[in-house]
Design a protein that fits this description.
The chain has 197 residues and is mainly α. The protein has helices at residues 2-5, 8-25, 27-30, 34-67, 73-108, 112-116, 124-154, 162-195.
């Protein structure tokens, strides 16, 4: 048992298989055709990667960033050299996958264009999802084009002078805090719109 739980990839694959078994077991409730099963599988994957993305956003903002000034200098390399690069790997890829699956799901269900253009005539649900989609797109842009390029240099993954790192840190923090701020209405939009499905 310790060998099983000690292998992150094996646990994830087993969880994935178990989730698909549950989706298939309840196919009568969701619709047994392949399109319905694909839709629910996309929804589940979107939720999984979204939880991973936002969970890491909250970890960074509530735990790692506020704690770094209190960590003794000789221990900081453990965080910046080992923990943070792994966090940012999952952070940026879960952001990309969440957004891509969300867009695929919206177009699969036929409301993608309406949601992105706020053309859900009389359909608050579609417009609410559209707002959530735009907030998610802005947040993913911040991750890939502001936070990650800055963090690569701050963490020493890419070359940068100490002066350049000092300039990048406030920019990365502002983008991360912007994402924290936007995550709250984005989550409300996504969860509330799905209550009316």
């Amino acid at each position: 048992m310790a060998k099983f739980f000690g292998n992150l990839h094996l646990v994830l694959v087993t969880g994935l298989v178990l989730a698909i078994v549950v989706i298939m077991a309840f196919a009568n409730a969701t619709g047994p055709d392949a399109g319905a099963i694909a839709g629910y599988t996309m929804h589940w994957l979107h939720t999984f990667f979204g939880v991973l993305w936002i969970g890491l956003l909250y970890y960074l903002n509530f735990v790692q960033v506020p704690t770094m000034p209190q960590i003794p200098a000789e221990l900081k390399a453990g965080v910046t050299g080992h923990i943070a690069p792994r966090v940012f790997f999952f952070f940026r890829w879960s952001a990309a996958i969440t957004v891509l699956i969300g867009l695929a799901m919206a177009f699969h269900h036929g409301y993608g264009a309406q949601a992105l253009t706020f053309q859900g005539a009389g359909a608050d649900k579609v417009n609410m999802i559209g707002l959530g989609m735009w907030l998610g797109l802005i947040m993913a842009f911040n991750v890939w084009f502001i936070i990650w390029p800055a963090q690569k240099k701050i963490l020493g993954i890419a070359e940068a002078t100490a002066e350049e790192k000092a300039k990048l840190a406030p920019r990365a923090l502002a983008a991360s805090r912007t994402n924290l701020l936007l995550s709250l209405p984005m989550l409300y939009c996504m969860v509330s719109a799905n209550l009316y499905v």
